[in-house]
Design a protein that fits this description.
This protein is mainly α. It contains 10 helices and no strands. The protein has helices spanning 2-27, 36-82, 98-114, 122-141, 146-149, 151-158, 162-244, 267-292, 299-306, 318-344.
Length: 345
Amino acid sequence: EFLDNELSNLKTILEEQENKIGEFKRAYMGELPQQLEPNLRALDRFQADLQSIQLSKKMAEDRKLTVEKTIEIMKQQMAGINDPNSPQNLGSETGLSPLMLKLSQRREILASLQMEYKESYPDIIMLKREIQEIENQIGLAESGNPLQEGGRESAGKVFQLAPGYLADLQKQLRETEIELRGLRNREKAIEKQIKVYEHRVENVPAREQILLTLVRDYDNTKKNYEALLDKKLSAKISENLEKRQKGEQFRILDAANLPERPFKPDRVKIGLAGLLLGLGGGLALAFFREQLDSSIRKPEEVERVTSVPVLVSIPDFTEEMRGFEKRAKKTIVENKTSKEEAHGA
């Protein structure tokens, strides 16, 4: 009865401590010691994303500045064409064609990209190709430069496509501004997530100390409970032995008999077991060797592995060569026999 009362009290205390640990884990989910490594990995990932977004934002801002500068130059050039007294219409060499403006814009973007990426970056390769095409167009048009030879009428021909190019630049500017807004929103969201995870990492030591105290008290109570439970079981067994008086009296109910046949070894079972193990081991070895063999024997396997269609396959002539050698040897023997018979005759 004493042990029962003590076990009941310890069980109540144990359940209360279990509830405290569960409530603590639910209240501080994400700040527990076992979640430190996942939080650090997530924090590294968010910081890497933030750096990537900041780099993309810087590039977008550079593109925006370049496009705005080009639009301003285009507007000045178009205003100069409509002004009879402008230097462009008087044959001055200071006017810039749309191709030159486009070339200047692409070169500025290329220089910005080359500061951040290697020459193998796809955008750099594409910009170099586009710059080369624009330079080729400018080279073809240099012999008949209307700004130097044709005066006002030729300059108007050069800039007849300027409104379309200006509209394209304005579209690029709007797209860049939309991209910048999206990047800024993503940057703010990621910075918010970084602050959350930094707060979690900073709180881990304090949560760990409190959790260790709770777990230590729970473990001590659990050990006391298990010890009392063992004592109760021992007392119960002792009580039953004393009541039934089986702790001191023994009586043989069934005497031992000699076996009529050998108990072991059972040769039939051993033989069957060896046969099954041998077959199983052989099949397993053959299966593993087949799995480890990466040789390609059929055209279908080449197509499956490389995803490239097979046009021609060269067959194995081993068996044909053996048959050819046998026929050749047989023919030589027959010819030799025929010569010997002819010689004897």
